[in-house]
Amino acid sequence: MNEYADILIIGAGPAGMAAALAAAPSGARIVMLDDNPLAGGQIWRDGPQASLPVQARQLRERLQSHTNIRHHAGTRVIAHPGPKQLLVEDDDHGWLISYDKLILCTGARELLLPFPGWTLPGVTGAGGLQALIKSGLPVRDERVVIAGSGPLLLACAATAKKHGATVLRIVEQASLTSVAGFAAQLPRWPAKWLQSFSLFNRHYRAATHVIAALGTDRLEGVRLQQQGKIVELECDRLACGFGLIPNIQLGQALGYAIEGQALAVDTWQASNRADHYAAGECTGFGGSELSLAEGAIAGYSAVGDVEQARQWWPRRARWQGFAKALNQAFTLEPHLKSLARPETLVCRCEDVPYAALTEHSDWRAAKLASRCGMGACQGRVCGAAVEHLFGWQPSALRPPYSPARIETLMCLDDTPPA
Amino acid sequence: MSQGRVADVIIIGAGIIGAACAQALARRGLQVLVLDAGLHNATAAGMGHLLVLDDNPAELALSDYSLQRWRKHAPDLPDGCAYRNNGTLWLAANAEEMAVAHSKYLNLQAQGIVCELLGAGALRQREPELREGLEGGLLINGDGILYAPATANWMLDTPNIRQRRARVTEVDGHRVRLDDGHWLSAGAVVLANGVQASELCPELPIEPKKGHLLITDRYPATVTHTLVELGYVTSAHNAKGPSTACNIQPRPTGQLFIGASRQFGTTDPQVEGWMLAKMLKRAAHYMPGLARLNGIRAWTGFRAASPDGLPLVGQHPQRQGLWLAVGHEGLGVTTAPGTADLLVAQLFNETPPLAAQPYLPQRFLGEPVYA
Amino acid sequence: MPELMLDGQALRVADGTSVAAALALGGNGCSRTSVSGQRRAPLCGMGICQECRVTIDGRRRLACQTLCRDGMQVETQP
């Protein structure tokens, strides 16, 4: 089965949806892929314990109303066999999609840093816990500690509380000054951001971080460094994430330039590769409003609607300002690099401890000697961690860009190029 | 050590061959300096398959001797080397290939190498994942697998061995020049850097042969032996154009390691989708269930191939002081112990443990010009 | 409300529940055993970390990105 798209969009979060809707009126044949079962990305993840904002519902309905937009859920990109061709796979089969224009909206993931006990069942990311709860994870009457950095911690706390969990503590590593400075600017931004922000939450602690997750077979408690003191709390869940990092692997593999750890794009959301665009968190973290603006610009640019694209520039600029403030406030403190002990696992796929990495000077040598990064996550978790810990640049992704069934890889044409 | 010399022996290349030679020399009391440019070539990419190959008597002698050494010293290897004595099972798809299996069986038995012929039923009993309709196979029990990068590192972690990250730009007998301009001198220099060797010695007939590999997620207890098609010997090993052959190796982790492909005339390390597909189709032809498994990583490597499929081990006939241990193609990991012992014997002017003649560099480079 | 089999036990869940959530609804939430023998459970919830690899109707899939369906056979990795 071969498919053709005038515009191929990777990712059905706010940016991808906005791009599809911007491009739709042109009549272009639009195909949108996402690896999740439903559109919405992370922030608008739907599920039995999710409550989608009205805006998200409306966008989804509008998407469905356009007959020239085709959405493939549960679909991942596996390889790039030709200049404008991708091999993709869903739960049932693999196939090739040829395209004229590509818009990457691959979003961001949480930075997960290793600390003693982080592999215990019961420990998740902060966005991770929120995503799991939305898709039905039961947390009623569970005691939850939320830790790491960024406004996502508060969003996670709100979701956990809403579904019956007891949030014992929200543990932010940034200093109170940084966080307060950010909060002081909040009135510049719409009320919906203010709603999820409450420094008056009595469980919130700044300048605090997790030292260890405690327990034998399962999480039983946490040890915190709380403003200079050591504190231990019994709990059932620890949701810990250190902010968001752009998912650039696919873009990098496709030849997109990277700038500041994000995909580099110009004012038209165009990359250095002709007919290849990117929008949303993969071009730099900034929240859903920025993603919507960038997605719209990318969609309009891709169909050549320069006028409409330009009209979104002011909105994008406004939300870029918010993003900048956010990133500055929640900069990660250096002591987070020293949380891991020699025996703390860094690579969870291959169970490689911190001690096995420290004798090496670069990613490739460490990987070969220890097998760190050779597992199923293809270095997405450990690679981000070691980049933060040691400054090592992980290598570019080779195909398969995600674990893929061998029968999918067998879909590739096996005749040698002329 | 004489004045001006940084070591008794300088070895260029810290892959499995350089590492094995370094260990052997160091254990004889020599001070060894291993220089490596950090390019991570065949040792890093390869399958770590330990196998006897009997395409010709010299290949059989070297691989068999080396396997004996591996089996003997396996208990010394740390866990990270992942050594397993799991055997190779050569697969015969038809009567013609079964006849080849039979003659290999006779040949190997005559050399005292333990092996078993299996009929169709016995084959599927030993490896239930294999497709129906195969004629049978030849099981070579003494073959095995290991993780080469960790093994090379273990070999280099021997007293009397120093390592240095450096790129050699010129070789002049027993002296080498680094890319910072400095010359280093030793009693002897050993060139053991695989495909890179012809950069330093353009006269060496070494050609890079590209290979693709893929590894799956963990599926424990799926396959026991390393499965290789007999067509491997007849077609792929000696072919000129691009070719693939079924090669499925069970890793101790439960992952399946899939090969094998061969291409000449390219040094592009990119994974080529068409070759990957071709290789996977060939493997799935023997093991249909492979199609449903997840592949998690694919990569390529370059084997250093010599014109007759045998390595060059011995003195460089024109450059006094320079010794060669290159051109091992797909048998580098297997024949590392034999290569090291051959080299050490020649350096010390002792009787080698197996005949050195077939691997001497002069067969390509001409007779020695010095005494 | 789909009913699935999780490690041989029947489990009924709300529509749209992910298999990752089902692991906690019907068991101890664990999905697999690591290389060194540790039990693991979903970590990132968004298809990145690969901790939630389970066998679903005979295929290795990510529990956090798979919705429960009626008759689905889920096996956690031993």
Automatic annotation (TrEMBL), chain C:
Q: Which organism is it from?
A: Pseudomonas fluorescens
Question: Which E.C. number(s) belong to this protein?
Answer: 1.4.99.5
Any idea which UniProt keywords this protein has? Oxidoreductase
Which Pfam families does UniProt cross-reference here? Fer2_4 (PF13510)
User: What InterPro entries would the database entry show?
Assistant: 2Fe-2S-bd_N, 2Fe-2S_ferredoxin-like_sf
Q: Which gene encodes it?
A: hcnA
Keyword NAD recorded: no
- The reply on keyword Transit peptide is no
Which Gene Ontology terms cover its molecular function?
glycine dehydrogenase (cyanide-forming) activity; iron-sulfur cluster binding
Q: What is this protein called?
A: Hydrogen cyanide synthase subunit HcnA
Please name the top-level EC class of this enzyme.
oxidoreductase
